[in-house]
Amino acid sequence: MEVRYVPDHSILSVVVGSRAYGLETEESDVDRRGVFVAPTRMFWRLAKPPTHVDGPLPEQFSWEVERFCGLALEANPTVLECLWSPIVEHATAAGEELLALRDAFVSGRANRTFAGYADAQFRRLDPARPKWKQAMHMIRLLLSGLHLARHGEPLVRMDAHRDRLLAVRRGELSWDEVDRWRSELVARFGDADALPAEPDRRRVEEYLARTREAAL
């Protein structure tokens, strides 16, 4: 079964979601994301290893290392935030090396992906009957992406914005206030240009080659 890849070949497991953001409530789940390395010889077969695996724990999802790196190079917000999670539950030597490599994945395309993901969430919201939890995470994603654009790393812990974000979740801010906050954050992306134009693919490929060799 595919779940055998986790934890048997796991190199990294982190907590994400509200508990990593500092926005948890008593009802919040523990969301885990991870990376595993499939044995290299398995790629020599017609049937390849999975690119991702659900479980075995509830709310746990893991990527095979090559898929994870590919998504990170594309500035996938969910994947990038895994690399900066403040809660690392498990990391092997390969996992520690991946964390140390995280700046190699950062590039200016993150401006588009973070803002784009937030915009997609915004378009799914109905101003007449907004889903306030979704609205909160839309704003959180913009805050994280703006910090990345300015400082080279996403903002995961939302301590400085916690009270206002939770007020959004509780529906204590009007839709107009939330939309105004969103518009202000989107406008600031245009002034943030601290990121390199492209990620450092060479460093990432060298890491993948070492990892595959070690898994022979």
UniProtKB/TrEMBL annotation:
InterPro entries: RlaP. This is DNA polymerase beta superfamily protein.
